[in-house]
Amino acid sequence: MTSWNGVRAAGGGEAVAPVRPPVVVLGSEGSVSLNRQSVYWADATGQRAIEQVEAGVDALPWRLRTRDQQSWTPGGVLWVMFEASVPRGERWYLETGTAIHDHLQFFHRDPNGAWVVQQAGTDMPASIWSVPGRLPTFLLASDAPAPVRYWLRVDDAQAEFLSPLRLVRSDMVRSQREVEQFMFGAYFGLALLMFCASLAHGVTYRDKAFLAFALYILLLASGQLGRAGVGAQHFWPEWLAWNGTLLSLWPGAAMAAGLWFVKVVTDPARLSRRLDLGVWALIAALLAATALHVVLRGHNSLTLVLALTGLSLVAVLCMVVWGWHDSRDRHLTLVVLGFAPLAVLALFPLARTFGLLPPSLLTRYGVFFGSALQLPILYYALNIRLMARREGELRASALSRTDALTGLPHLQALVERLDTSLAHARGQKQQLGLMGVRVSNLDAIAEEFGPEYAEKALVVAASHLRRVIVGFDMAARVGEREFALLLEAPMTPQLATSRAQQVVASGLRQVEALPAALTLKFHVAVALLPEPQLDGAASLRWVMEGLDQLTPDTRKLIRPLNF
Description:
Helices cover 49% and strands 16% of the residues. The chain has helices at 50-55, 170-205, 208-228, 230-235, 240-249, 252-266, 273-296, 299-326, 332-345, 347-353, 361-399, 411-428, 442-449, 451-468, 493-507, 536-548; strands spanning 8-9, 15-16, 23-25, 31-33, 39-43, 63-64, 77-85, 92-96, 103-109, 115-120, 137-139, 148-155, 165-169, 432-439, 474-477, 482-487, 522-529, 558-560. Strand 17, helix 16 and strand 18 (558-560) form a beta-alpha-beta unit.
């Protein structure tokens, strides 16, 4: 590879190259960068044809294209020139590093002196590019007897041409594209999975945070499909207007959705009304700037969108950190961790756009890397948040049908279940059991040990009753110190009596939650159902009235009612 000789510094520190660029000698290396091996010139009018540029090559102010050089072309045309010698029997390509520019043309003369023209860009379907693919790629002349001079013409009214230029051998192109297809497939497959799952959760549970997250993923992934060239290559190869719209929506629409998502999660209104209004104003400004850019598609509108995007990144970090610091919501810690990698890695391409950083892997794919880390973390955080919310809702719902102290169903739940069981028992001509249980020494416990241990005694009693029931049986609290057990069919007098004895015996066991000298004295009334003309409520009243017949000092603790 030849070095660049005869380069001298021009005013402002820029390098002025000789008219003839150095010849890039392609050898064993599979990929060669054109940094410092090509020259460029910006045609402000964009009116010169290739013949005019070639004819006036000696008079044009060509400059050395370096890694740190910002090649500005919006509103005009950028010309890049280089010379290369391709080894015989090999095929080499010029590959640009981005797929966002409107129109690119690649020129060289064949051995007969005729122009060979190749084209690519977003203003034509990728299928009719000279070399179809994800990135604009052009074939170099093969088996030429002498080095060939090449010209690249870039026409784009929106973005500066900051794309790396490389000469790549054909085998490297194939292997590189295979790896790229695999990586992009994995990334966009993950994004699609996260989108579908988030949308399903949002619709099923009416969770606004999941819906906002799904919208954020959709706009983020759609913009990245367009920016990476994957969408135009595989998903909408003939929809040029759609592809152009997606490119114009990036990154403003995705950033606005991200702001809304963070606003839903952190709820800045409870922290500061001004902060909440400020976030809404920033979202509105970002959407307005994006809409303006979709219409104008100019460099100034793009600069405005990027500036607001940078401001939005700061706002996102402020909201997340502030909300996490001032909130009792422990799940915001995961949200902070989720946004941290994207916020940091997105600064690299943003800084490169403003000319603050040279091109690199992070400036090209920083958002992809950040998103790949961000999406699973945020999805997990929202899942944990939803589970906590659902658990609270279920507990609140259960309180309407469950006793708060013992956790057992209350009277109404038992009556409803008893009506259903009685209907089933009558249909099957079977018997079920209904047992009324009273903690008869509860007043003595409260008097000797205090109200606190009286409540503990009720909790322990509920625990004992849960151990007695089996299968589809049901235990419920039906009074201040009364419980009821529904013993499902088939039930016999012997089985009912045995269960009642188990209840009485369970109260005599010592438990750690109660003082050593304290045991529970259970009175039990038990009946076999169904009884003619008695529904669930009447059956329960009958059993509880039978329980009232047992006096506190009675020696007979179990009272059968109808057997």
